[in-house]
């Protein structure tokens, strides 16, 4: 069974074709700058040289047709007929509180995804265009939608509600939704499997640390709290995002700068975080390098990040009444041994003990805690696409 996983943005289309008998990726690629000058498609058949097509791509339908042609191409393709593709699975950033799990696309589902546009204005419109494009090209093939928010729908109300007047929840749906749910779900399941246990018996904190970072409390397989909020701005310090801060800072900065609401939003999302504090870069590798050379603001940015992550792990240990496993994933979590060590050092009083040698790894599954650590610390590379493919198979096979 072959499943096409699609992640569409407003001007991009990423895809991976999985053979679900082996869970191997047969081909993957990216269409960029859809509707903008300089559009192109990069397609890679697994094990072969990349194949690039530079051509005007006016919309997502044209982009999708190019992808399907590439999959069929006699030299670069991996299928003889599009009938070999059983279903497509789509990544959707926000399903609001309409979706608690992945579902097959119907007209009602599309209506609900449209209703969530105010919660993900930069993402959901692109996802909708991607679904419509493949429905147009392959009208008989089923489509499944997998939501970044769905895994967090098990949070109790006292964890997802904010202290604003209740009518803003009722009328404007102001509440915590979280993000990266597909990743938190994947790594929590995989970590348990890797440790030879069931996630239903474990209290885990999953740390998805990339350009955007979020931390979740996963108790007995269910998410009970997560650090991102109504939007992906909340939580720990990120590449260019502030993370949590006193909300009164918003009007304060607006008063001194005369920023409009949109400008203020941009400032908090794109000019802050590691970049804003260090003045060096949003990329942790650059910030680590500057800190090693003695740059004090780079050191400060790293300290804010590690302290923030450790505080969340402490808070979620309280939320779960204990802690068995810490999972590190995504660009920073999988690759930065110093971040993992810096965070865990602050948790030693809870019995968390890193083994420096075991921790000296990047990008692969590993236990990085010492044998006598009370809490097992693991690195699990995330694979959101595989999670989407599995859900799609489960719902359509
Ligand atoms: P995104 O959220 O865009 O998917 P990623 O998960 O790719 O981001 O993570 C990007 C982050 O991972 C960047 O801050 C980058 O510096 C960091 N990163 C990647 N490799 C390393 C490394 N070897 N050491 C430290 N940080 C790394």
List keywords for this structure.
binds adenosine-5'-diphosphate; 8-stranded mixed sheet; alpha/beta
How would you characterize the overall build of this protein?
- The structure is a single chain.
- The protein has 397 residues and is α/β, with parallel strands linked by helices.
- The chain has helices at 60-72, 107-115, 124-137, 157-160, 167-172, 181-194, 249-257, 261-270, 273-278, 284-292, 296-320, 330-335, 337-345, 384-396, and strands at residues 2-8, 13-19, 24-32, 40-45, 51-54, 85-92, 103-104, 143-147, 203-209, 213-219, 222-226, 325-329, 366-367, 376-379.
- The strands form 2 sheets. Strands 5-4-3-2-1-6-8-7 form an 8-stranded mixed β-sheet, with helices on both faces.
- A hairpin with an 8-residue loop joins strand 13 (366-367) and strand 14 (376-379).
- Helix 10 packs across helix 11.
- The radius of gyration is 22 Å and the shape is globular.
- The termini are close together.
- Adenosine-5'-diphosphate binds next to helix 10 and helix 12.
